[in-house]
Amino acid sequence: MSKVPPLSRQVLSNLELFRGLSTAALDDVVASASTRAFARDFRVFNQGETRVRAHVLIDGWIRISQSGSDGAQIVVRFIGPGDIFGAISLFTDRRYPADADTLTDATEVSWSDRALLDLMNNHPQIAINAVRIVGQRLQEAQHRVRELATQRAERRVAHALLRLLRQVGTTTSRGIVIRFPLRRKDIADIAGTTLYSASRILSAWERAGWLKTLDRRIVVQSLSDLMRIAEDESGQDITPLPP
Amino acid sequence: MSKVPPLSRQVLSNLELFRGLSTAALDDVVASASTRAFARDFRVFNQGETRVRAHVLIDGWIRISQSGSDGAQIVVRFIGPGDIFGAISLFTDRRYPADADTLTDATEVSWSDRALLDLMNNHPQIAINAVRIVGQRLQEAQHRVRELATQRAERRVAHALLRLLRQVGTTTSRGIVIRFPLRRKDIADIAGTTLYSASRILSAWERAGWLKTLDRRIVVQSLSDLMRIAEDESGQDITPLPP
């Protein structure tokens, strides 16, 4: 973790949380911001920690993962450039609800709880933007609830990959690449299945030539096969069997 | 559906969305509110409908349920007195994300999208309250995701009942009563299991004397047995077998 120069109004005005603000308002936002840079595999905050701040990622990737009282863990989401994280706890029980770990080198900007509330009171558009951002995440979470409640593992893994491709896929000559390193355990966690099942499914898809792993990134080579599995309602596994 | 008299400042000041507002601000809120009364089994809005409003339930109970493109349906939540519903869509894609049906006679108050945005811009505390409410729901949804991803059906049904008891349970001489009528399908939907599994589990618990159904309400008679199942991590079914 190292100190980096403060951010410009220009960078902040492109963030969804500060969309639609006047120049004067953006100056207020800049004035109370702190910027930090992290190396890969750095723990930004721990689940349960109480000195909460509102964070926005400027650059890099972060994994948010949550453990239950029974020890079971899920990946809540991956945070990319422009996304807020850790901020909702300022409004609820003032404890971070999850762990945050960098997946790559990363730069964040953050505000104290007091600074964010002052900004929202002086510039209500920030609070309105926050309702929209949190509302979108709530809709996504409800979508995941429905998938988990109603779909079998193979279909959920296909949905999880398609969601990642939409959010963070880049088309290259080799296929569509997910832009940050993912473990099979991450895929299992976001699809809500076991590491064993996710590995079995991903290995079968690799053998079928639908995807491969290059430099720790997943590269999807047959989007149409993944979409066919995501849409299939027969309830039967349609992954090719091992030879 | 019938027209009912407009609500008082007093009633609104008790709602979480309007917590901490001045008398003048509450007068603004009252001025743009519409109040409606519904009979039981009334469809308040349909999933996909675009003329969205921000709703707060004053009295009664409402079920919010969502269908996927594959037809699979889940109960998203039960709305009780004081809860907001349908309001998040004003900030996202401006379509109701789910159906809302009354479970009992009910009274709501609602605001147009324009009126709510004006209120939030003039009284930022309303937007800050909304971030807190939506943030709490997001945390609950992530909790459900973790349960669905990691727990077996019996444990999820126990968790779903315990959550309902905490939210809407009343202690009576006969046990703890869930205060609105629930179908077995509702329990299955919120626990993310099939009607068949939920019925099998609930019937076994009835035979064991842990709960019963009186006047379409579930009455829990052995909280400790439900808690034992909710906490069990052995992965084995511990519900008593049918005689």
From TrEMBL, chains A, B:
InterPro entries: cNMP-bd_dom (IPR000595), cNMP-bd_dom_sf (IPR018490), Env_Response_Regulators (IPR050397), HTH_CRP (IPR012318), RmlC-like_jellyroll (IPR014710), WH-like_DNA-bd_sf (IPR036388), WH_DNA-bd_sf (IPR036390). SUPFAM superfamilies: cAMP-binding domain-like, Winged helix' DNA-binding domain. GO terms for cellular component: cytosol. Residues 151-224 form the HTH crp-type domain. It comes from the Bacteria. GO terms for molecular function: DNA binding; DNA-binding transcription factor activity. Keywords: DNA-binding, Transcription, Transcription regulation. Residues 17-105 form the Cyclic nucleotide-binding domain. Pfam families: cNMP_binding, HTH_Crp_2. This is Transcriptional regulator, Crp/Fnr family. It comes from Nitrobacter hamburgensis (strain DSM 10229 / NCIMB 13809 / X14). The lineage of its organism: Bacteria, Pseudomonadati, Pseudomonadota, Alphaproteobacteria, Hyphomicrobiales.
